[in-house]
Design brief:
Elements (H helix, E strand, L loop, with lengths): L12 E11 L4 E12 L5 E14 L2 E12 L9 E11 L2
Antiparallel strand pairs: 1-2, 2-3, 3-4, 4-5
Length: about 90
């Protein structure tokens, strides 16, 4: 920590990411997102994945069901390294 109260950490990272969309039909879309960030000094890795299904309901209104996983290789003590999230969203496109 610096004397001026700034406790920010500075480190170079490498980021890899991929995004895949597949049209199941005219109104349904399968989507997969993957990303990994690697800290080059501390070698800490954060990996994330989102798998989603999006479908049109009517007009500009659609629904999205998604499952996300986030893994941190060097998580703080007393916490899980992996978090999961399930979501159901209503989307309006304009």
């Amino acid at each position: 920590m610096n004397d001026d109260g700034d406790d920010a950490e500075k480190e170079a990272i490498a980021r890899l990411a991929a995004h895949f969309d597949y049209a199941l039909s005219d109104t349904a879309l399968f989507r997969q997102k993957l990303s990994t960030e690697i800290g080059l000094d501390e070698n800490n890795t954060i990996s994330q994945s989102e798998t989603a299904l999006q479908t049109s309901i009517v007009g500009s209104l659609s629904m999205k069901a998604a499952f996300r996983v986030k893994h941190v290789s060097d998580a703080p003590a007393g916490t899980d390294k992996t978090d999961t999230e399930t979501s159901l969203s209503l989307l309006y496109g304009f």
